[in-house]
Amino acid sequence: MLIVQKYGGTSVGSIERISKVADRVLRARRHGHEVVVTVSAMAGETDRLTGLAADVGGRDQKREVDVLLATGEQASAALMAMKINALGGQAVSFIAHQARVHTDSAFSRARIKQIDVSALRRALQHGQIPVVAGFQGMDPDGNITTLGRGGTDTTAVAMAASLSADVCEIYTDVKGVYTTDPRICPNARLIPRITYQEMLELASLGAKVLQIRSVEVASAYGVAVHVRSSFCEEEGTMVVSDDDASLEKVVVTGVSLDTNEARITVRGLPLRPGTQSDVFRPLGNRGVVVDMIVQNPPTEGRTNLSFTVPRDDLDAALEEIHPLIKTWDAESVVNDPAVAKVSIVGVGMRSHSGVAQRMFELLAREGVEILMISTSEIKVSCIVNNRYGELAVRVLHDGFNLAQQGREA
Prior knowledge:
Shape: globular
CATH class of the largest domain: Alpha Beta
Helix content: 25-40%
CATH architecture of the largest domain: 3-Layer(aba) Sandwich
């Protein structure tokens, strides 16, 4: 059995933790498995390096920042290989060009185009354990690139896909994927199996267990992903295809909360063909991601257009919108940074009616005002005042009985 194991920053956050991970890797090897390891930088290291870049005035020099940040994973890979060797194993570290992780040239947010795994296969054939520095690649010109926050997840899943691995194990500091954040709902339940679609929705809606792009890659190539904790031996959550997830057993799988939201409303916008394109074009050019969009019915040829953006991008969005108010002949622009998005997700919603109505009823009982609504085939999201965000999560988690319902493993 070929296993790709990924260990996050907290899992390799100290020499003691690296030793425990090395022991776990060697146990898998002794059980007869071939193992490829991918590692993140030690906890806090990426932030430290980012701070150093800022100290020398280099934060906006994206090529050089990538060169700098990639050293965090490089150090982890070398230390992990050393420890495995010291414990009697045979390991060899690989950084981007050695592992032949080919990406585009979008520094700080590069996408993997191809992985040439021939060098990794040679190492496996020689009985070695490849330890790959995650989060990084190289562009067509040989420059070091990085994949963005959480990029080691993507490295691991892409590596598993390229190697046709039997499973990709994502080791983190939590036991798996929960019905909601246990810090908000102490009775949140570990989900034994979840579909790619559900995991992708939860990841995009604020759940931070898996990086979104890693789920996309897993779904596209059918990689079985096992999310589990490096701090215990318990089974975690298997991320699988729809056919393997016992879909009929539960309507709502999880509840998520995203507090990094801000709402912008363009008031009195003249309604004519191309209006919406005019509003969102400058935001797209600036790289601002727009999430939910609501347009009110027109009155006397004018409408109010509301949309949400990440709160971190609010200032950039307003910088693009405000100068164009006169050009659009709109009345005004208002914004509200004190909002949150609460969502319910579940593939069972495809075949069950009344789920959205139940969500709205539960929130209404607690006096939670819904400011915006967005739906998809397996998701309902509501924008609410930020101070009601956690209350909304608890109400929905209890209202849909997520602490009691279970999906068989």
